[in-house]
Design brief:
Oligomer: single chain
Structural class: alpha+beta
Shape: globular
Number of helices: 4
Mean pLDDT: 94
CATH superfamily: START domain
Helix content: 10-25%
Low-confidence stretches: none
CATH topology: Alpha-D-Glucose-1,6-Bisphosphate, Chain A, domain 4
Length: 162
């Protein structure tokens, strides 16, 4: 096991078949439609995933019945090229859940870079896992494994390619 102070960042990227504006829009406005199976906190696929488009804005899911489950905060909102988030989902009682203490949030930076052929490279860099304390390794392994960020990025690419 790695010391949580030395956990490396998790970086994944994918090229999606859409221009940068469309890729950013699909990520920030339509995530509920493509988010990888089980990548939510509520009982079922959310009816919406909301990014309040400003620094300090909330990042949360909303169920069909209106119940909201928070995921974190927007740190930087710079469409269509960049989005920085505070990941405030930690391991609570052996289950992933929202931790309202902002000091316990790791950092997720997404960049959307246009390619010469009209597609977009979407890159996620997730760092600062030590903020999750004892759950740091589980969060790192979860988002870094094939069922973590790579699964979400693959779903995004498939969604915008339809």
């Amino acid at each position: 096991m790695t010391d949580i102070e030395t956990l490396p960042g998790v970086v994944h990227e994918i090229t999606v078949p859409a221009p940068v504006d469309r890729a950013f829009e699909a990520y920030t406005r339509e995530q509920h439609a493509w988010v990888a199976e089980g990548h939510w906190l509520g009982e079922s696929r959310p009816a919406a995933v909301v990014f309040e488009p400003r620094p300090g804005g909330r990042w949360f899911e909303r169920a069909a019945d209106g119940t909201e489950s928070e995921w974190g905060r927007v740190l930087e909102w710079d469409p269509p090229g960049r989005l920085v988030l505070s990941w405030m989902i930690g391991v609570i009682d052996d289950r992933w859940g929202f931790d309202p203490d902002p000091d316990h949030g790791s950092r997720v930076e997404l960049t959307f870079t246009p390619t010469d052929d009209g597609r977009t490279v979407v890159r996620i860099e997730h760092t600062g896992f030590q903020a999750h304390g004892g759950g740091a390794q589980a969060i790192h392994d979860g988002v870094g494994g094939s069922d973590g960020w790579p699964a979400d990025l693959a779903e995004l690419a498939a969604y915008v390619g339809r």
